[in-house]
Amino acid sequence: MVAEGELLWEPSEEVVASAKLTHYLRWLGRSGDYEEAWRWSVDNPAEFWSSVWDYFEVIGDRGDGPVLSGEMPGATWFAGSAINYAENMLRRTEGVALVSVSEDGARQELTWAQLRDEVARVRAGLVRLGVGRGDRVAAYLPNIPQALIACLATASLGAVWSAGSPDFGVSSIVDRFKQIEPKVLIAVDGYRYNGKAFDRSAAVNEIAAALPTLRATVWIPYLEGGAPGEGHSRETPHGEVIGWEGLRAEEGPLEFERVPFDHPLWILYSSGTTGLPKPIVHGHGGVVLEHLKSLSFHQDLGEGDVFFWYTTTGWMMWNYLIGGLLVGATPVLYDGSATYPSPAALWRIAASEGVTYFGVGAPYIMASLKAGLRPEGLDRLRGVGSTGSPLPPEGFAWVAAELPGVPVGSFSGGTDVCTGFVGATLLHPIRAGVIPCRSLGAKVEAYDVAGKPVVGEVGELVVSGPMPSMPVMFWNDPAGERYAESYFDVYPGVWRHGDWIKIDEDGSCVIYGRSDSTLNRGGVRMGTSEFYRVVERFDEIADSLVIDTGRLGQEGRLLLFVALAEGAELTAELERALCAALRTELSPRHVPDEIRVVPGIPRTLSGKKLEVPVRKILLGTPVEQAANLDAMANPEVLRHFGA
């Protein structure tokens, strides 16, 4: 075990002096004291976000309205302004804009000039299909250049982008896209994963058939030998059918429809594991300002950087990854498995592409630790990012040991804001298991049961001041009722995010997992992340899930489900060792009433453990009602979690 808070990395004077955040603070005329700067940014949000616009020389018309008016929910930013996300993304003209790598080793580069030309061509194609301001373009695409190109072309028109990954099932995609009534669907015929090809032609036909608003379906022949054409058109009942080459066939002007600050840019979705996914709408201006701030000041990205984050188009980290273009970094788009042909697949991509900032979900770092990986060839690497779930102290320590001098920044936020509320900077030391700071402009606090802010204690993660990248609305929620219920039903006027967090005096924090999956033993609330940290340290345990079946006023059972490593068995000796570790390192309350072996731990397609649906199943909810199987990475394992 590594002690939480153990110092692993400190920035040198040279690192601090050259940090992009330091340059910004000097430009502001402020000191280099981060906590002082953070406090100013949340106490004076209009002044702070106005400075971000000016510092990055955002393209657009600021207008003469107030920077901020109103309160949450319903705060309005930069009234009277006009801006376009794609115009800010495509402001550069020279050098390599992006790199694409496939699981089979295929590689492609696009220069800024080529990217601009492709966006202009696809934009012209969308116009021919009747797409204009406010129309929705839906995409069923993997993480390939066509997805980024089509997203920017859509945004350039003031139309609205929405994407799902082709590993999503048909009903899961229909649940999402049917809500937003798209005019055009762009889809691949299939994809490759873990060394296998998956034909999705039939799935696309089913999706198109369920979307009567379609004027056209655009096919991308991604699988070898696949081709758009006559065969598909007979099965697609709505609108015309064309291929990608047909969409981009004609040159067109690269123009940008400037829209109000809060005009819809894209629609992201909640996981949809326990109900119809919430269609979360973000605006052009909020995303531009938030991603400029976060990528530059917290990831320290800029011109010359090569930016990688392992993601699919169905996760908000894809939107964050492509945002690297805003600061002049080169995103690396990867389509494939993280562990094929070996567990070191992602580290090898980082080495071969000269990645300077490498981001993954926390489980990949822990899997690298367990596999005993020794990443090599990462001479250009300046930072490692981790998100998706809390990274245990041992994960921090592994990065520090294997990549000396490279800080690892744990980053936590969500699809709801398409960024992180808390993270790191190059001005902060890195301590095991600790997130160094609250993000600039994010007024994050921990609330106790009485709704009062606390320091040094675990509480509900809340945001008590507005941020520009908070959703402008949920689609088809005209009165804002569903939006208000999602974030403001517990603390009026204060955003409740649904995580447990402890914030210390210096602004650093630790996240302990979802507050809606809390363990409550003997009246003591406990986060699940501490539990997993102990259990998954055992070599015999590949993954785990802990559920407390207690209800209000009624003590339940604490059940530990374990997926065993290859060749391992749950022996009486291993059970005793697990219980002893939990008792000693956490408390007697953490000792499970029962340990059960399962073939796998249910996760969402973005890798989050499904604690709440499993708890519902254990309390009697039928599997098909407790979770949307199409929104899961491994739905077949749920049947092993009966009471």
Q: Give the overall shape.
A: globular
The value of Rg in angstroms is 24 Å
In percent, how helical is the residue content? Answer: 25-40%
| N-to-C CA distance | 33 Å
Uncertain spans, ≥5 residues at pLDDT below 50?
A: 225-234
Largest sheet: 7 strands, mixed
Please give a structural write-up:
With 643 residues, the protein is of the alpha/beta class. The protein has 21 helices and 37 strands. It has a seven-stranded mixed β-sheet, with helices on both faces. A five-stranded parallel β-sheet has the order 9-8-10-13-14, with helices on both faces. A five-stranded antiparallel β-sheet has the order 28-27-29-31-32. β33 and β34 form a beta hairpin. The longest helix has 17 residues. About 2% of the residues have low confidence.
Salient structural properties:
alpha/beta; seven-stranded mixed sheet; 21 helices; 29% helix
Map the helices and strands.
Layout: E1 7-9, H1 13-18, H2 20-28, H3 34-43, H4 45-55, E2 60-61, E3 68-69, E4 76-77, E5 82-83, H5 85-89, E6 96-102, E7 107-111, H6 112-128, E8 136-140, H7 145-156, E9 160-164, H8 170-180, E10 184-188, E11 190-193, E12 196-199, H9 201-209, E13 216-220, H10 230-233, E14 240-243, H11 244-247, E15 259-260, E16 264-269, E17 279-283, H12 284-298, E18 306-309, H13 316-322, E19 330-335, H14 345-352, E20 357-361, H15 362-370, E21 383-387, H16 393-402, E22 408-410, E23 412-414, E24 419-423, E25 430-431, E26 437-438, E27 444-447, E28 453-454, E29 458-463, E30 473-474, H17 481-487, E31 495-503, E32 509-514, E33 519-521, E34 524-526, H18 528-535, E35 541-548, E36 558-564, H19 572-585, E37 594-597, H20 611-618, H21 623-626
Parallel strand pairs: 6-19, 8-9, 8-10, 10-13, 13-14, 18-19, 18-20, 20-21, 21-22, 36-37
Antiparallel strand pairs: 1-25, 2-5, 3-4, 5-15, 6-7, 11-12, 16-17, 17-30, 23-24, 24-26, 27-28, 27-29, 29-31, 31-32, 33-34, 35-36
Helix pairs in contact: 3-4, 6-7, 8-9, 15-16
